[in-house]
Amino acid sequence: MSDLANKLLFLPERASTFADRIDFLHYFVVGTTMVASAGVGLAALFMFFRYRRRVENQATEYVVPNLKTEFLFVSVPLVFFLAWFAIGFRDFTWFTTPPKDSMDVYVMGKQWMWKFSYPEGPNGVNVLHVPANRPVRLLITSRDVIHSFFVPSFRIKMDALPGRYTQAWFEATKPGTYQVLCTEYCGLSHSKMLAEVVVMAPEEYDNWIKEQRRGRLQDRQDALADNSLVPGTARMAEQGQKLAGTQGCLKCHSVDGSQHIGPTFLGMYDRLEHLQDGQNIRVDEAYITQSMMDPGAHIVAGYQNVMPTYQGKLQGPESAAIVEYIKSLRTANVREGASEGPAYDPIQ
Amino acid sequence: MTPSSSIAAPGAAPGHEAHHEHGDHPSYLVDGTTVKSWLLTVDHKRIGIMYMFWVLLFFLVGGIFAMMIRLELLTPGPTIMDAMTYNRTFTLHGVVMIFLFMIPAIPAIFGNFMLPLMLGAKDVAFPRLNLLSLYVYLAGAGFALWGMLNGGLDTGWTFYTPYSAHTTTTVAPVLFGAFIIGFSSILTGMNFIVTAHTMRAPGITWFKMPLFVWALYATSCIQVLATPVIGLLLLLVSAENLFNLGMFDVARGGDPVLFQHLFWFYSHPAVYIMVLPAFGVMSEVVSTFSRKNIFGYRAVAYSSVGIAFVGFFAWGHHMFVSGQSTFDAGIFGALSMLVGVFTAIKVFNWVGTVYKGAVEFTTPFAYFCGFLFFTVFGGMTGIAVATVSLDVPWHDTYFVVAHFHFIMVGATIMAFLAALHYWFPKMFGKTYHEGWGLVSAALIILGFNATFIPQFLLGNAGMPRRYYEYPERFQALNVASTAGASLLAFGFVIIALYLVWALIYGKRVDNPWGSKGYEWLTASPPPTHNFVGPQPTYPEEPHFYVDPKKAEVSDAV
Ligand code: HEM
Ligand SMILES: [Cu+2]
Fold this sequence. Notes:
The complex is a heterodimer of chains A (348) and B (557).
Chain A: H1 2-8, H2 17-50, H3 67-95, E1 103-110, E2 113-117, E3 123-125, E4 127-131, E5 136-142, E6 147-151, E7 156-160, E8 166-170, E9 176-182, E10 195-200, H4 202-213, H5 233-246, H6 249-252, E11 272-274, E12 280-282, H7 285-293, H8 316-328, E13 334-335, E14 343-344
Chain B: H1 3-6, H2 35-39, H3 44-72, H4 83-118, H5 127-149, H6 163-166, H7 172-198, H8 211-243, H9 258-289, H10 297-310, H11 326-354, H12 363-386, H13 388-394, H14 398-428, E1 430-431, H15 434-461, H16 475-505, E2 507-508
Antiparallel strand pairs in B: 1-2
Bound molecules: protoporphyrin IX containing FE and copper (II) ion (CU).
Protoporphyrin IX containing FE binds at residues 63, 66, 69-70, 90-91, 93-94, 97-98, 101-102, 156-157, 401, 405, 409, 413, 451, 465-466, 485, 488-489 of chain B.
């Protein structure tokens, strides 16, 4: 029955406890809306017909409503609206109050990727692993502009604000993979700021997290440490990020670790690149700048010489800003884990 | 004319203006035919017509952008443009439609033209200020369009910080243009308020004012009170963008969400700036075409004021998931419900007006039917998104896009077209072809539904707004929406064709509807000073179609 309703309304699969609550109210409100619209519409149509004009310049009676009618007009909708409000507010309060025993995950939005880190676990980009049937609290922030973390199947959404933490929580009910979308316009690649939540059976998740923790650096920094509040270089990196977007760098270079037409920017700084001519080169400011101005000088093994030169297109401070941006995407150590996506040490 | 005579009661003899008149009292359309006589006119009717020209032009521009958006979204990946172009296109669509079309459309065109006529006045209270507001509007529009062509911005019409403070696209000229347009809005609003207070003809009491005037009055109050807030805000954002002041930058102690509060403090009431005049038009239309006095006149009048009032206390419902407190969300959610109740009162009273009426199904009435549907359904989806928990999944998805297009755009476009058809004979003294009118009304109502109903479903399915590319699973509904939009565009083309034809070859008419609205008490098109000879008297309320034989008031229902 509710499966049919979900199909008719194009609602995605229900995969969290919040989704179950939301959908009930959804049917109630949408159902009443349909009935009320149809009721008003049919009453109107009936009257248009019943009271159609029979003679030109027909005169009419002077009809005014009495107090009782107007009272009805006010109170019937009010009762319905307040009932919805009451249920909706109760559920919203539930949604904004994470249970005490929930496990925490930090979420950081960043043009245009989602980063996840566990207080004493691994970091990940664009893939969030959580156990089923265990409440998870998300502590959400942003490194640059406002983003919004949305999982349709869980029916949850919360804005990611720079310099602040917002929170949301959910309890996933079914193992599986669910899409995360960004719903606050955040620039060029807003519509590509996608990620996934992988919900695992609890014991599977416990194994996964153990696997991830093995071999971690001992005194790793708190995942909270975040340079975005620091003025100076941070602002420069932001500038560079915008430029990388508008200058088209990101058409070929990803920032999330995935390989595209060109090498990814994530973790590029200080990396040892293998070049086509067999040599190795350590990526530093000089190399990045040279690659922008004279892309053909050192071709990284496995890539084509397709990048255009930015000589004359970027001014000194602009190329510096881009370098600073690439540096900000540095990770200390990229490893392959048992997870589906790569796992990273905290970004420094 | 001295200022004191311009606000004198219109009952005063117009004798001292005899030198303006040419014996046969030409209509305002032909009283002076030079370009200068139009550009420098202080006649509210000519100003209304000039507004009409520009507003329709901007509607065309906004419509072209709308079709570009819909074509791009026909396929999941890139279709006709790149991401940056798309982001600029939806921004321009929003900015042009909101600031250049929707806000001025009904008040500046039909309000300007009808308000003095409906009050038995010769003009608005400040005719020169009225002309100034047109040029201020054009200056703002020029600024904004210049900025859009020179780079164009990609922030969306909501200009949210910190994005708008950092984007490399050119934000400042467009914001400055919108800032200037705000002045035009304030000037028009002030003019209407003063006109309603001081220039009502003898016999027109507050509760005998036509409901369109009540709606304009409530709208003007919002404009005068809320527009300064957005004006200052736009300046702040421009300054932040140009000089990097840090007002919205947390790194320097600013607040990224402050913008949203100030923005919606204006923009939420602003949706009523768009929709209240529409409600006013519809009160006139339903009463004329069912030949009935408005059922519950006072309730409809008061609810306009009520909406204007609570409209100021509902802005937080745009920010349920922005990190505002749960308590705030509850307050804003509850207050938003009141707007729904006031709208419901109007809807019931409109339908009640038909009761025991004599309905003639004309083109304006067809738009009334469409309007009723968009208002009820769109309004109910508004209640749905104001229901705090339900808004969590819907916020910033296509559900919201569909909701505001239904209520704001749908209702307003229906009213705009109804007004255009209802008052066309009043403004030009000619009539159009009724058959074409009904065909295009059907096309537009169908097209509108076909465009936006799929968008409600897209929102349910989870498609966020402002997406250039979307996951494959959303495609079917997007194709449906684009098909609907094409139908809609086609309807507008037909209207443009037959109305231009009617302007040139249309049949001469005076009051084809037999309407008893006050504005019909003078000739169509009206003479320059609105009335010649003795002033009309106003013994009855507007739209009093009572049969003398049944004259005693029946308190039925
Ligand atoms: C032919 C009719 C129209 C079509 C097909 C259409 C289509 C669209 C589409 C597809 C969007 C993009 C939604 C998004 O991604 O956020 C949009 C946004 C919008 N439209 Fe329309 N639209 C039409 C008419 C109008 C009119 C007459 C208005 C007048 C106010 C309007 C106001 C807006 C606004 C305010 C937005 C939001 C812009 C933004 O999110 O930045 N639209 N429209
Ligand atoms: Cu984002």
